[in-house]
Amino acid sequence: VFKSHLQVGAYDANDPLLDPVWGLLAEAGIPVVTHCGSGPAPGAYTGPEPIGRLLARHPRLRLVVAHMGMPEYAEFLALAEAYPEVRLDTTMAFTDFSEGFSPFPAAERGRLADLGDRILLGTDFPNIPYPYVHQLEALERLGLGDGWLRAVCHGNAAALFGLPGV
């Protein structure tokens, strides 16, 4: 796994110097976890637009968007719909903590079911302001069913990394 934290690193994923790196990662099928949403504080290189440009050049990039792209949930869901190798992780999303400042739009819940095979459990544990189990409770509270929960909590990551399923 390769990690790209655009917000903390304050760098442009579209810098021409990085293009060969993205190309190699895409060609090798190596998953890239990226912090590219504009939460909790927007940066010069965060948001769906720069990632959309990156994916237009490297559509096979196996990108895992941390925090579901918070707060631009709808836009990052759209990128996942447009690019089959894009996945989203649930870190902090749907918890009481994040719902207080960046609620997931209720109108987008159906898209979670539609993309159920490309959503992965994320936690940031132990660096979270709530008990670990609350992330799991928040996912269950969505009411998307046991199959969806199993996929998000295990099956999707197992498939991404070529591990045996349950």
TrEMBL record:
One of its GO terms (cellular component) is cytoplasm. Pfam families: Amidohydro_2 (PF04909). The keyword Cell inner membrane does not apply. GO terms for biological process: secondary metabolic process. Residues 2-163 form the Amidohydrolase-related domain. GO terms for molecular function: carboxy-lyase activity; hydrolase activity. InterPro entries: ACMSD, Amidohydro-rel, Metal_Hydrolase. The keyword Lyase applies. This is Amidohydrolase. Keywords: Hydrolase, Lyase. SUPFAM superfamilies: Metallo-dependent hydrolases.
